[in-house]
Amino acid sequence: MNSPLIVNYCQQKVFQQDNCYCLYDSDQVKNFTPQMFEADYWQQRNAVNGTAQGRGTTYFIQHQQQQWVLRHYYRGGLIGKLIHDSYLFTGYQKTRAAQEFALLSQLAVLGLPAPKPVAYRITRSGLTYQADIISERINHAKDLVALLSEQTLAAASWRAIGHCIQRFHQQGIYHHDLNAHNILIDDQEKIWLIDFDRGEQRKPAQQWQQQNMDRLLRSFNKECLKFSQFHWQPDNWRQLMEGYLS
């Protein structure tokens, strides 16, 4: 994975103790503790204001005036059934959390609509590690699956989604899992992309960009099979591609 160039996005500080290594943005985190990566820490403070289910539980945190997302890294696919959340350690900067934090920092520098990173934790155990990350929560937003299970979207919204993806691709931003769950629309009709685990900054190229779009189209078709009512039509893809190619 290529590490993106970070251009003084935030004031990064490192905390290291025994087998625990953390990096955080000191502008956002004033009183750092490694316990902030534990759901119990926030639950005891009545600071958890929501959860989401995926491979594991994602926690939505209210911290003072800030809204955060706490996520633990889990493996997917067949190997994930055998090795749930452990990864081979080859250096802190090569861990999943460090790479995602770096990419989110670069997206902030580029002014792209994605969550800002807050902190990450690496916990080593011999030759392996586990990881957690905290990032900014996009307030008053819903993902496309939630929206399309409730309502249709206007053609202008589909074009805006396509144009948003185009902005990322023009900057060489590869999203490893571009799907309908990872595209949000907030209450101001702004489009956001989330979940950049295993993403990276690459040289723009038609092949991987097309693979991103193919994956997104498959996700819409897949969601159609899950819901008895899902407001998605093939013409919506045409509208999305109009925005992407404009």
What does this structure look like?
This protein has helices at residues 39-43, 77-82, 96-110, 144-148, 155-170, 206-226, 234-245, and strands at residues 12-17, 20-25, 48-53, 57-63, 66-72, 87-88, 117-125, 128-136, 141-143, 173-174, 183-186, 191-193, 200-201. With 246 residues, it is α+β, with helices and mostly antiparallel strands. The protein has 2 domains: 12-136; 141-245, Transferase(Phosphotransferase), domain 1 (Orthogonal Bundle), CATH 1.10.510.10. The strands form 3 sheets. Strands 1, 2, 3, 4, 5, 6, 7 and 8 form an 8-stranded antiparallel sheet that branches. A hairpin with a 4-residue loop joins strand 11 and strand 12 (191-193). Helix 5 (155-170) packs across helix 7. Residues 1-7 have low confidence and may be disordered.
Entry summary:
By secondary structure, the protein is an alpha+beta fold. It has helices at 39-43, 77-82, 96-110, 144-148, 155-170, 206-226, 234-245, and strands at 12-17, 20-25, 48-53, 57-63, 66-72, 87-88, 117-125, 128-136, 141-143, 173-174, 183-186, 191-193, 200-201. It starts with 11 loop residues before the first strand and ends with a helix.
